Structures are given as C-alpha cells and as structure tokens.
Amino acid sequence: MNFFKRAWQNISFKKGRSLLLVIVMTVILVFIMAGLLIRNAAVTTVNNTKQQVGASVTLSANRDQAFKKMRSSTPPTSTSKTKKPSLSMPSVSLANVKKIAALSGVANYNVSVATSANASSIDAISTSSASNNGPMGMSQSTSSGDLQITGVLNMKTLSDFKDNTNKITKGRALTSADVNTNNVVIESELAKQNDLSVGDTIKIKATTTGKKAYTLKVVGIYKASQSSSSSMGPQQSDPSNTLYTAYTLANQIKGQTNKVDSAVFTLSNPTQKTAFLKAAKKIINTKKFSLTADDSTYQALKQSMQKMESFANKIVWLVAIAGTVILALIIILMVRERRYEMGVLLSLGEKRTKIIGQLLVEMFMLLIVSLALAGIGGQFAGQALSKQVMSSVTTSTTTDSATTQPGGNGGPGGGQAPSGQPGGNRPGGQMTQGTQNKAKSIKASDLNLKINPLTLLQLGAFGFTIIAFAVLLASANILRLEPRKILIG
Amino acid sequence: MLTAKDVSYWYDSEENTLYKDVNLNFEAGQLYGIIGSSGAGKTTLLTMLAGLDKPRKGEILYEGTSLQKIGLTQYRNRYVSIVFQAYNLLPYMSALDNVLTAMAITHSERENPSEFALEMLTKVGINPDMARKNVQKLSGGQQQRVAIVRAMCCDAPVVVADEPTGNLDDTNTREIIKLFQELAHEQQKCVILVTHEKEVAASCDVQYLLQHKTFEEVTL
After folding, report:
1. Domains of chain A, residue spans
2. Closest by Cβ to A349, choosing from B86, B105, B134
3. Residues in domain ABC transporter (chain B) (predicted)?
4. Is the CB of residue B112 less than 8 Å away from at least one CB of chain A?
C-alpha cells in the first residue's frame, strides 16, 4: 500500500501539475456529465411522457363501410334525381363503449354526441358571413338549430380544453358527475350577449321531431380562442354558439338513448396500443365501426427525445474518446518527465505494476476532485446544451407533427352534416390529441437535469475508465523503462 | 556471497568487448573498491552486480544462485542496495520519507521503521528537523548521506555504490567512507564501491583494478 502514500505525496508536492490535471479532467467530465444528464433526462422524459400523454383510440362509425353500403343500395340503373342516396352513419352503443373502457390499460375515456338545437330564451350569435355566404344561399339556422350541442362525458379531457384553445373562465367544466343533468357550459361571447352568468338558466328547443323544449342550467362559461371568421366554413355556426352538455342530455335532444357518435379512450401506456386494439376489435362490429389509434403525440415526443438521446450519446462517447486520448498524452508526457523517479523506484526493486498502480491512484485522487467540480459545472453545461438541442428538436417535431397530424379537424363525426347531423362542430377533431401543442409543451426546462447519485456513479465510471485507459496507454513507456539507462546512462 | 562467473560484456558488438571471462568473488564483511580509468567499464560491472543489467556472457551468482534465476527485480528488492553518484533520491519526499519508502519497498521488518530511520539519519548528521525537510533542500553531502542511510536501512546484505564521493568535498568524503566501512565491518555487509579516487580506494579492504579489459586484485 506504500504506493498510495507515494501517490498522495507526489500530487501534493507537484501542486501546479495536479491543478492542471484537475482542470483538464474537469473539462472532460463536464462535457460527459452534460451528455449523461441530457441522455438520462431524455430517457426519463420519454418514460414520463408515456404516462402523461398516453395514446388515444377513437371509436366511431366506419365511414368507408358506410359509403360502400350507400353506393350498393343505389340501383345502378336508377336515373331518378329525386331518389338521392343517403349516407347512414351508425351510432356507437354506449354498452360497447363501457366494455372497451373496462379493458386493461385504459386511463380514461370520453364520449361525444353532436346535435343542434334552437335558442329559445336567448339569442344565438349570428354571423353575417355565414348567413350570407352559405352554399346555395342557405342560412345556417334554417337547415339545423342555431346552437350546436356537444354532449360529452368529461370536458377536461377534450383536446381543446387540454391545449388551452378553450378555457373555462367562470364556473366549472362538466364531469361525469353531470351525467343525467341539464347542466350546460356556454361560451363567453354568448353569455355576454345574453347577459348570462353561472347559475342562470336558458331554454332551448330540439330540432328533432316534437321540438321539445329543455331548460338548461349554466354551470360554467368558457372562452373560445377560435375566431369565427378565420376557422368557419360554410354551414358552420359561430363557435360561440357551441354549448357543452352531458352526453345524456345531448342524446335526449337528438332523440336517441344509450348511443354516442364516437368515443375516445386514452391509454395509460402508448406501448399497449396494439394489445388494446386487438381486444377492443373483439367487442365491436368492425364492419360498422372503426377504431382509429392516435399515439402521434407519444411518437413525436419519443422521436424528439430519441434525437436528443442520440445527440447526448454522441457527446458522451466523443468526449470520452477524446478525453482518453488527451489524458493519455498528458500522462505519457508525465511519465517521460518522471522517468528519473521511476528509475529510482525500479532500482529499489519496486515492481512495474506498482509504479503503474501509483500513477492510477494519483489520477484517481485527482478524478475525485474533478468529479466534484464536474458535478457542479455539468448541470449548467447540460442546461445550456439541452436548451440549444431542445429548440432544434422541438422545431422539427412541430413541423413533422403538423404535416402528419391524424384526425385533425376532419375527424370522425366532423365535417359535413349528412343525415341531418349538425355541421360545423368537430367532435372527432376536438377529441384528437393536440400533437403539435404537446410537442411544443415539452421544453428544455421540462427536462429533469438534476444530478442524482446514479448520474454521478455513471460519471465516475466513465472517468475511471478514461483514466484507466489513459494510464494503460502510457504504461507501455513504464514497462520499457530500464533503470540502468535512466540512472547511470 | 556474490560471484561474477565468466562474465563478458560489450555494448555494440562482441568485437568491442569491455572485458571477457571475468571471475570475481565478493564476500560479506568486506569493503571492495573497483578502480580503473574512466570508460573502462567499472560502472558497467557495478550495474551487473546490482542487478540493473545482465552480462552478455557468463553470470552473476548470489549465494550460488544466478541473478537471472532469482529475478533482477526480486534481487534488487531483497538482496542489494544501491548508492548512486547523483544520490537518486525521490525529489518530492523528505529525507525521512525517502528512507521509509525504500524500507517499505524492500519489506523491511523493523518494528518501528520511522524511529529507526530517524536514528540512522541522526547518526550520519541529519537531525530530525532536517530529516523532515524536502530532500532537495539538503546539501549534496547531506543528500549522499541520506542515500547511504537508505541503503543501510534496507537490510540488504549487498551494498553497491557508484562513485559515492564523486560530488563531495574531502570532509564529506571521509565521513562517507567511514559509513561504508561501518556497513562492511559492523553490519557484515558486502560493500562494493566503484571509484576513481585513490584515497577512497585506499580505504577499501580489497581493490580490483580494471585494466586492459581484465580485473586484477591490487595487493595493499
């Protein structure tokens, strides 16, 4: 153990050289630390994101099959213009929705029922462009109600509310506790125009047969950031005319029971998507209904994190290799400078392995100091690097997801209004996860760049491997040393 | 104790042999002096006796066993102590630590090595305060004395010294010679000195003169 003492005596005697080595090693370790922090943070973020974003699977009518059915029911010889083919979109059974929701891996689910109604005790917001410029001069309120009703199970899981496109400004959002109630959440412009506030009641009339009147209680007011002129198409009502109710009330207004237009199931883990789809398809009639999986948020984030992980890995390995080479060169020079000392030790009968051991111990002692310094510096460097890298990966992810975003505004149940369905609103689209916004929401600050004992252990292992390799490379010189030539020659 | 048997040595080629078939015998309790002109090969013989080099032909035997068989590192570690002209002390240590390091490397079995080393250093005129100073702060004579104490403390039965007084003044030279005589006569070590100084050679029990590529024992 004598060489431990010698190592300590040497590094404490040669303070300047020791300091220089500490600086070099600290710089190397800071870069490795930064790389390790980013890599570990990227892995952790992907794992955490799995839980946070999950994957969504939308159950809705199979539009392709519905169109095929419509075409096959039309006689090929028919030339009559009076018998236009009609597209019949089947509604999803609520019982099936509940069965699917009971499958393992489902974090939560939501249902959507879209219908329309006419304002009775209030005035709907009318948009001149919509009423004047509609197709074939149609006024939107003539073919369907002037209020768009969106029946849901839970407003909080709607993407428009999750990504803050819509915000609850007063009162509360609807939850599963509002099922079988007449509670409603209205838009702030509609509330302002009719001088409504939380707790007030409004009356609407169904557009279906019987035109039954309903009294609804306002429990919340939301602010829609979507402007009427920018996003509305022909036949679309002003977004401020959208009312959120429980799906049970929407069903009553629509004149159906135990049915929904679509359902969205959020999986707790995106990797369970395939197994879930397999199990869910056994429950539904796949000829009538389709299951559309959307794990694009997870995939987009995973991709960006993988890019970052790969970048961090490259940093770690590049710095490790460069560090080994740099340290090896320094140690080789150091060995040359210390040939005399080594010759003395060899002349005393010291084993070459112990001389190499002394070098290793010296470097290890300096490594401990460098580790402490790198622990402090690495966090700052990691933060700076990750900001730089995250800004580039987020930009690319946003671009990617914007071009490949599934569902979008034309999701199941959205778009045109066949079979008397209200046009304009987009329940399917609303319930699609906001990939773009999610990707944006993962910022550098979201990466957990805190140093933990495992990171320090990894850094220590890297540091030790580097010095071990460097000493090993330099020890070729020691093995060749001949004490006679050094001390006498 | 230590025997050079049919030892031949050359550097570049056999034609330029330094010496051929040298046979010498060194015994415990004697102080040997190897003398000769510069470049004759005195130090080369010493390096072979010290286990720092191997003969080109022949062998060096310690107690009848070839050094090659013992292993040069093992031989240096257990059986021989070397004193160099340039002292060859470890510069980052104190005088005391130099002695203690050598004792640790050679597995000295002294019960209290620190106390023993200080006692030996004091004996050669290095007081405890000086002993704890960095060795580079000592004078040449003091450093040589530290080097001799290092050899003394290692308990090796053979001590070889290459021009140990080469850098010293007359007073220091006399003190160092006295120390070597003590090592040989009191501690019963086999002490071999290489020197070109007649005064030093004269104080040795046996002198070998290297001349015309052969060693001749000089009768005193």
Report:
1. 2-46+302-397+445-487, 55-70+87-294
2. B105
3. 2-220
4. no
User: Is the separation of the CB atoms in A332 and A447 below 8 Å?
Assistant: no
Torsion of CA A447, A451, A457, A463, to 10 degrees: 90
Yes or no, beta carbons of A350 and B105 under 8 Å apart: yes
Q: Is residue A202 within 8 Å of A153, Cβ to Cβ?
A: no
Query: Do residue B76 and residue A487 have CB atoms under 8 angstroms apart?
Result: no
Both tokens of B184, joined, read 């040989």
Partner-chain residue, chosen from B47, B53, B76, that has the shortest CB–CB distance to A349:
B76
pTM: 0.63
- Listed by start position, the domains of chain B span 88-155
Over 50: is that where the pLDDT of B53 sits? Answer: yes
The predicted complex's ipTM stands at 0.88
pLDDT at A412 over 50: no
Kindly report the average pLDDT of chain A as a whole number: 77
Phi, psi at A231, each rounded to 5°:
-115, -5
The string of DSSP letters for A223-288 reads EE-S-HHHH--TTPPPGGGEEEEEHHHHHHHHT-SSEESEEEEEES-GGGHHHHHHHHHHHS-TTT
DSSP annotation of A90 reads P
Please give the structure tokens belonging to residue B219. Answer: 């009768």
Select from A159, A189, A186 the least CA-distant residue to A174.
A186
Chain B contacts of A17, Cβ < 8 Å? none
Compute φ and ψ for A131, nearest 5 degrees. Answer: -80, -30
Judged by CB atoms closer than 8 Å, whether chains meet at A9 and B97 is answered as: yes
A345–B105 CB contact, under 8 Å: yes
Mean pLDDT of chain B: 90
d(C-alpha A377, C-alpha A31), whole Å: 9
CA A263, chain centre distance (Å) = 21
**Could you give the angle at which helices A352-404 and A296-337 cross, rounded to 10 degrees?**
160
* B72 CB burial (10 A radius; 0-12, 13-18, 19+): buried
pLDDT above 90: residue A429: no
Mutate to test the interface with B, among A1, A6, A15, A348 (most CBs of B within 10 A): A348
For strand A166-171 and strand A213-224, is the pairing parallel, antiparallel, or unpaired?
antiparallel
Please list every residue in chain B whose beta carbon sits closer than 8 Å to the beta carbon of residue A14.
Answer: 92
| C-alpha span between A28 and A33 (Å, rounded) | 9
The gap from C-alpha B219 to its chain's centroid, in whole angstroms, comes to 22
Phi-psi region of A18 (alpha: psi -120 to 50; beta: other; left: phi over 0): alpha
DSSP code string of B19-40: EEEEEEEE-TT-EEEEEE-TTS
Phi-psi label, residue B90: left if phi above 0, alpha if psi -120 to 50, beta otherwise: beta
Q: Check if the beta carbon of residue A462 is closer than 8 Å to that of residue A320.
A: yes
CB A125 within 8 A of CB A186: no
CA distance B151 to A394: 71
